[in-house]
Amino acid sequence: MNENDFPILLQQVHGRRLVYLDNAATTQKPQQVLDAIQEAYTTWNANVHRGVHHLSQLATQHHEQARQAVADFIGAKSAGEIIFTKGTTDSINMLAFSFGEQFIHEGDEIIVSYLEHHSNIVPWQMLCNRKKAVLKVIPLRADLSLEIEQYKCLFTDKTRLVSVAHVSNVLGIINPLQDIISFAHEHHVPVCVDGAQSVPHIPVNVCALDCDFFVFSAHKIYGPTGLGVLYGKQEWLEQLPPAQGGGEMINHVSFSATTYNALPYKFEAGTPNFIGSYGLQVALHYVEQLGREQVADYELQMMTYLEQQLAQIQGITIYAAGQPKAGAISFNVANLHPFDVGTLLDQQGVAIRTGHHCAEPLIDYLQVPGTIRASVALYTTKEDIDTLITALKKSISMLS
Ligand code: PLP
Asked: Which of the four pLDDT bands, split at 50, 70 and 90, describes residue 361?
């Protein structure tokens, strides 16, 4: 990685060097991705799939190559299993609607966990309200890991789907997906994995995981906003109805009957974000060139250092302390409101996030008004962490 690859990080904020530790919310984009987007708009912008002309064919080629790149990146069997969406939230909403139409009936049950992002709660809750189905929740252990024995007890002959995060966006905890998925499969129940916080930090292979659906957002892995992925095993996607109607997702349209397109287009109504998919392809290539294992190892070193440094500050509570984490770590300072600490950190050029992180049930469970979350990326350095720690100590002394 070249230290100038992320131009946004070269600026000062409030007269200090910017230290960006809000990567779980969104990541910064390398120059290569910025250049790719500029190149796309300046040299081959044209609508995909429907054009015989040169630019349209180029755009189509780029878009379909991006789909293949995503399939390769997450180890899908074919590009037909990759549906482009607007983001993780959109992917889960699409799945909840489509899966719900086909498979959820009154009294059926869907399982999520206590530490989910709202995006992996509310769409299922809305589905349950529509269909008079039941949402069940995997409880947490005292150490904030999932209570797997209780998870197993939630299964009945009405269980239709499990949807869990791979990595918690608040705690950074890596959930035991192998146990969760293999147990669900023993009961012939499919599993959707919210990979918004795993794909950017740890190598993911959907075939090795054997998950049935996997979702993530491009903007959290150095790609553009407004683009996400819904992966589904072909045998599942083929059974699901389209979630939206419009252009592109059809085969033939008449007023008496409409037939639908093949996978993955059946799920992609309207003009897709083909500039975004090109940006994502370049972002994934960027990560691959650095080496996914190398990125994961490097980030783990940063996370370990961060946790060690935080643990030395008096009055700090680290949530899920000592557990294996990826990407994010949440903490609080005794007697201080996270918002006040976050505001003072910002004054010192350090961007972290405070609040409920779109995971209110978990925050309620912790019985706090919110947490302070620092989240790393491949460009995070030890110097960044040292700056955070110095700024944190100063903030604490100013507020105490
Ligand atoms: N799921 C998790 C675990 C997340 O961390 C996020 C975003 O922070 C989302 C879902 C929603 O992602 P998006 O806002 O990109 O749709």
From this structure: very high
